[in-house]
Amino acid sequence: MPADLASDFLALHSGAGFVIPNAWDAGTARILEQVGFPAIATTSAGIAWSFGVPDGGALDPGAMFERVAEIAAAVSVPVSADLEAGYGETPDDVGRTVVLAAELGVVGGNIEDAAAGVLFPIEVAAERLAAARAAAPVGSFVLNARTDAYFVGSAQDPFAGTVRRAQRYVEAGADCIFVPGVKDEDTIRRLVAEIPAPLNVVAGLVAPVIPAPTLFSLGVTRVSVGGSLARAALTAVEKAGRELRDAGTLGFLDGAIGYADVQRRFGVD
Length: 269
Prior knowledge:
The structure is a single chain. The protein is built from 12 helices and 11 strands. Helix 5 packs parallel to helix 6 and helix 6 packs parallel to helix 8. It has a single domain, classed as TIM Barrel (Alpha-Beta Barrel). Strands 1-11-10-9-8-5-4-3-2 form a 9-stranded parallel β-sheet. Strands 6-7 form a two-stranded antiparallel sheet. It is of the alpha/beta class.
Protein backbone atom coordinates (compact mmCIF):
# COMPACT_ATOMS: atom_id res chain seq x y z
CA MET A 1 0.00 0.00 0.00
CA PRO A 2 2.69 2.65 0.85
CA ALA A 3 4.52 1.82 -2.39
CA ASP A 4 1.31 2.33 -4.37
CA LEU A 5 0.65 5.64 -2.63
CA ALA A 6 4.23 6.76 -3.23
CA SER A 7 3.95 5.82 -6.89
CA ASP A 8 0.73 7.80 -7.18
CA PHE A 9 2.33 10.73 -5.38
CA LEU A 10 5.46 10.72 -7.53
CA ALA A 11 3.29 10.56 -10.67
CA LEU A 12 1.66 13.84 -9.66
CA HIS A 13 5.07 15.47 -10.08
CA SER A 14 5.07 14.53 -13.76
CA GLY A 15 1.75 16.15 -14.56
CA ALA A 16 0.61 19.66 -15.37
CA GLY A 17 0.75 20.72 -11.73
CA PHE A 18 -1.08 20.05 -8.48
CA VAL A 19 -1.95 21.77 -5.23
CA ILE A 20 -1.05 19.95 -2.03
CA PRO A 21 -2.72 21.60 1.00
CA ASN A 22 -1.18 21.44 4.46
CA ALA A 23 -3.15 19.86 7.31
CA TRP A 24 -2.30 20.09 11.00
CA ASP A 25 -4.45 17.33 12.49
CA ALA A 26 -6.56 14.34 11.48
CA GLY A 27 -9.73 16.39 11.19
CA THR A 28 -8.32 18.97 8.80
CA ALA A 29 -6.70 16.19 6.79
CA ARG A 30 -10.02 14.39 6.37
CA ILE A 31 -11.81 17.56 5.34
CA LEU A 32 -9.15 18.31 2.73
CA GLU A 33 -9.32 14.75 1.42
CA GLN A 34 -13.10 15.03 1.13
CA VAL A 35 -12.72 18.30 -0.80
CA GLY A 36 -10.89 16.24 -3.41
CA PHE A 37 -7.16 16.91 -3.12
CA PRO A 38 -5.05 14.03 -4.48
CA ALA A 39 -2.43 14.34 -1.73
CA ILE A 40 -1.98 16.12 1.59
CA ALA A 41 1.05 17.62 3.30
CA THR A 42 1.56 18.38 6.95
CA THR A 43 2.60 21.76 8.28
CA SER A 44 5.10 22.03 11.13
CA ALA A 45 3.85 25.57 11.77
CA GLY A 46 0.19 24.56 11.99
CA ILE A 47 0.98 21.59 14.20
CA ALA A 48 3.11 23.70 16.53
CA TRP A 49 0.42 26.38 16.79
CA SER A 50 -2.22 23.76 17.57
CA PHE A 51 -0.13 22.90 20.63
CA GLY A 52 0.06 26.56 21.59
CA VAL A 53 3.75 27.02 20.80
CA PRO A 54 5.56 28.86 17.98
CA ASP A 55 6.93 27.27 14.85
CA GLY A 56 10.64 26.69 14.51
CA GLY A 57 11.56 23.86 16.85
CA ALA A 58 9.63 24.77 20.02
CA LEU A 59 7.52 21.61 19.78
CA ASP A 60 9.05 18.32 20.87
CA PRO A 61 9.70 16.14 17.79
CA GLY A 62 7.89 13.24 19.46
CA ALA A 63 4.69 15.28 19.62
CA MET A 64 5.18 16.33 16.00
CA PHE A 65 5.60 12.71 14.88
CA GLU A 66 2.50 11.62 16.82
CA ARG A 67 0.45 14.21 14.98
CA VAL A 68 1.96 13.25 11.61
CA ALA A 69 1.04 9.61 12.31
CA GLU A 70 -2.55 10.60 13.12
CA ILE A 71 -2.81 12.54 9.86
CA ALA A 72 -1.42 9.68 7.78
CA ALA A 73 -3.78 7.20 9.43
CA ALA A 74 -6.83 9.41 8.90
CA VAL A 75 -6.76 9.57 5.09
CA SER A 76 -6.36 7.25 2.12
CA VAL A 77 -4.44 9.69 -0.11
CA PRO A 78 -0.65 10.13 -0.06
CA VAL A 79 0.71 12.20 2.82
CA SER A 80 3.99 14.13 2.70
CA ALA A 81 5.44 15.27 6.02
CA ASP A 82 7.12 18.53 6.89
CA LEU A 83 10.27 17.14 8.51
CA GLU A 84 11.84 20.59 8.98
CA ALA A 85 15.65 20.25 8.95
CA GLY A 86 15.54 16.53 9.69
CA TYR A 87 15.47 16.69 13.51
CA GLY A 88 19.12 15.98 14.10
CA GLU A 89 22.65 17.26 13.99
CA THR A 90 24.12 14.65 11.65
CA PRO A 91 23.22 13.02 8.32
CA ASP A 92 22.60 9.77 10.20
CA ASP A 93 20.06 11.60 12.37
CA VAL A 94 18.29 12.79 9.24
CA GLY A 95 18.26 9.25 7.89
CA ARG A 96 16.67 7.97 11.09
CA THR A 97 14.04 10.69 10.85
CA VAL A 98 13.09 9.56 7.35
CA VAL A 99 12.92 5.91 8.46
CA LEU A 100 10.56 6.90 11.29
CA ALA A 101 8.41 9.01 8.98
CA ALA A 102 8.05 6.14 6.52
CA GLU A 103 7.12 3.78 9.37
CA LEU A 104 4.35 6.22 10.32
CA GLY A 105 2.79 5.84 6.88
CA VAL A 106 3.89 8.96 5.05
CA VAL A 107 5.24 8.57 1.52
CA GLY A 108 7.22 11.77 1.22
CA GLY A 109 8.84 14.52 3.17
CA ASN A 110 10.48 17.93 3.06
CA ILE A 111 14.04 18.34 4.31
CA GLU A 112 15.24 21.93 4.84
CA ASP A 113 18.77 23.17 4.26
CA ALA A 114 18.76 25.69 7.10
CA ALA A 115 18.47 25.70 10.88
CA ALA A 116 18.00 28.63 13.27
CA GLY A 117 17.84 30.96 10.27
CA VAL A 118 21.25 29.94 8.88
CA LEU A 119 21.85 27.97 5.68
CA PHE A 120 23.93 24.80 5.95
CA PRO A 121 26.99 24.75 3.71
CA ILE A 122 25.88 23.23 0.42
CA GLU A 123 27.87 20.00 0.82
CA VAL A 124 26.60 19.52 4.38
CA ALA A 125 23.03 19.94 3.17
CA ALA A 126 23.67 17.53 0.30
CA GLU A 127 25.09 14.92 2.69
CA ARG A 128 21.97 15.20 4.83
CA LEU A 129 19.77 14.68 1.77
CA ALA A 130 21.87 11.75 0.57
CA ALA A 131 21.41 10.14 3.98
CA ALA A 132 17.66 10.70 3.73
CA ARG A 133 17.61 9.13 0.27
CA ALA A 134 19.64 6.12 1.40
CA ALA A 135 17.43 5.57 4.45
CA ALA A 136 14.11 5.91 2.64
CA PRO A 137 12.29 2.76 1.54
CA VAL A 138 13.19 2.08 -2.07
CA GLY A 139 10.50 3.33 -4.42
CA SER A 140 8.13 4.49 -1.69
CA PHE A 141 9.31 7.89 -0.49
CA VAL A 142 9.26 11.17 -2.43
CA LEU A 143 12.07 13.40 -1.18
CA ASN A 144 11.34 17.13 -1.42
CA ALA A 145 14.50 19.17 -0.85
CA ARG A 146 13.78 22.62 0.49
CA THR A 147 16.31 25.39 0.00
CA ASP A 148 15.92 28.59 1.99
CA ALA A 149 18.28 30.79 -0.04
CA TYR A 150 15.38 33.23 -0.61
CA PHE A 151 13.53 32.65 2.64
CA VAL A 152 16.52 33.09 4.97
CA GLY A 153 18.23 35.76 2.92
CA SER A 154 21.87 35.92 2.04
CA ALA A 155 24.54 38.38 0.94
CA GLN A 156 24.99 36.20 -2.14
CA ASP A 157 22.76 36.20 -5.19
CA PRO A 158 19.76 34.14 -4.01
CA PHE A 159 18.87 33.03 -7.54
CA ALA A 160 22.33 31.67 -8.29
CA GLY A 161 22.54 30.13 -4.83
CA THR A 162 19.15 28.46 -5.21
CA VAL A 163 20.02 26.98 -8.60
CA ARG A 164 23.40 25.75 -7.40
CA ARG A 165 21.87 24.13 -4.34
CA ALA A 166 18.97 22.65 -6.31
CA GLN A 167 21.29 21.02 -8.80
CA ARG A 168 23.42 19.54 -6.02
CA TYR A 169 20.35 18.31 -4.14
CA VAL A 170 19.01 16.54 -7.20
CA GLU A 171 22.41 14.81 -7.50
CA ALA A 172 22.01 13.78 -3.85
CA GLY A 173 18.68 12.11 -4.60
CA ALA A 174 15.95 14.73 -4.30
CA ASP A 175 12.80 14.11 -6.35
CA CYS A 176 11.52 17.68 -6.10
CA ILE A 177 12.97 21.07 -5.14
CA PHE A 178 11.05 23.34 -2.76
CA VAL A 179 11.84 27.07 -2.87
CA PRO A 180 9.87 29.17 -0.35
CA GLY A 181 10.13 32.95 -0.30
CA VAL A 182 10.38 33.59 -4.04
CA LYS A 183 7.72 36.11 -4.99
CA ASP A 184 7.95 37.37 -8.57
CA GLU A 185 6.82 35.59 -11.70
CA ASP A 186 9.93 36.18 -13.79
CA THR A 187 12.18 34.68 -11.12
CA ILE A 188 9.92 31.66 -10.77
CA ARG A 189 9.98 31.12 -14.53
CA ARG A 190 13.79 31.31 -14.53
CA LEU A 191 14.04 28.86 -11.63
CA VAL A 192 11.87 26.37 -13.51
CA ALA A 193 14.19 26.63 -16.50
CA GLU A 194 17.36 26.11 -14.45
CA ILE A 195 16.33 23.47 -11.90
CA PRO A 196 16.50 19.88 -13.24
CA ALA A 197 13.54 18.64 -11.17
CA PRO A 198 9.92 19.57 -10.46
CA LEU A 199 9.63 22.86 -8.59
CA ASN A 200 7.52 23.28 -5.43
CA VAL A 201 6.49 26.82 -4.50
CA VAL A 202 4.56 27.78 -1.38
CA ALA A 203 1.65 30.13 -2.08
CA GLY A 204 0.48 32.66 0.47
CA LEU A 205 3.76 32.98 2.38
CA VAL A 206 4.87 36.31 0.92
CA ALA A 207 3.17 39.14 -0.94
CA PRO A 208 2.12 39.45 -3.65
CA VAL A 209 0.09 36.25 -3.50
CA ILE A 210 0.34 34.42 -6.81
CA PRO A 211 -2.59 32.02 -7.45
CA ALA A 212 -1.91 28.40 -8.30
CA PRO A 213 -3.07 28.58 -11.96
CA THR A 214 -0.56 31.34 -12.60
CA LEU A 215 2.20 29.35 -10.90
CA PHE A 216 1.38 26.34 -13.09
CA SER A 217 1.56 28.54 -16.19
CA LEU A 218 5.09 29.51 -15.13
CA GLY A 219 6.09 25.84 -14.99
CA VAL A 220 5.70 25.15 -11.26
CA THR A 221 4.66 21.55 -10.63
CA ARG A 222 3.75 21.51 -6.95
CA VAL A 223 2.01 24.26 -4.98
CA SER A 224 1.73 24.01 -1.20
CA VAL A 225 0.41 26.58 1.28
CA GLY A 226 2.48 25.94 4.40
CA GLY A 227 0.73 27.28 7.49
CA SER A 228 -1.69 29.48 5.54
CA LEU A 229 -4.78 27.34 6.12
CA ALA A 230 -3.90 27.13 9.81
CA ARG A 231 -3.49 30.91 9.93
CA ALA A 232 -6.88 31.34 8.27
CA ALA A 233 -8.49 29.00 10.80
CA LEU A 234 -6.87 30.79 13.75
CA THR A 235 -8.01 34.11 12.31
CA ALA A 236 -11.58 32.80 12.18
CA VAL A 237 -11.36 31.70 15.82
CA GLU A 238 -10.00 35.08 16.88
CA LYS A 239 -12.70 36.99 14.99
CA ALA A 240 -15.42 34.76 16.44
CA GLY A 241 -14.02 35.24 19.92
CA ARG A 242 -13.97 39.00 19.56
CA GLU A 243 -17.56 39.00 18.30
CA LEU A 244 -18.68 36.91 21.27
CA ARG A 245 -16.79 39.08 23.75
CA ASP A 246 -17.74 42.46 22.31
CA ALA A 247 -21.30 41.92 21.03
CA GLY A 248 -22.41 38.54 22.31
CA THR A 249 -23.67 37.70 18.83
CA LEU A 250 -23.03 34.60 16.75
CA GLY A 251 -22.68 35.97 13.25
CA PHE A 252 -19.57 33.86 12.84
CA LEU A 253 -21.86 30.85 12.38
CA ASP A 254 -23.15 32.19 9.06
CA GLY A 255 -22.05 29.67 6.45
CA ALA A 256 -20.56 27.31 9.03
CA ILE A 257 -20.82 23.56 8.47
CA GLY A 258 -23.71 22.19 10.51
CA TYR A 259 -23.14 19.84 13.43
CA ALA A 260 -24.91 16.92 11.75
CA ASP A 261 -22.93 17.47 8.56
CA VAL A 262 -19.63 17.42 10.43
CA GLN A 263 -20.72 14.22 12.17
CA ARG A 264 -21.46 12.62 8.81
CA ARG A 265 -18.12 13.72 7.39
CA PHE A 266 -16.23 12.16 10.26
CA GLY A 267 -18.44 9.09 10.53
CA VAL A 268 -17.77 5.64 9.16
CA ASP A 269 -18.60 5.34 5.46
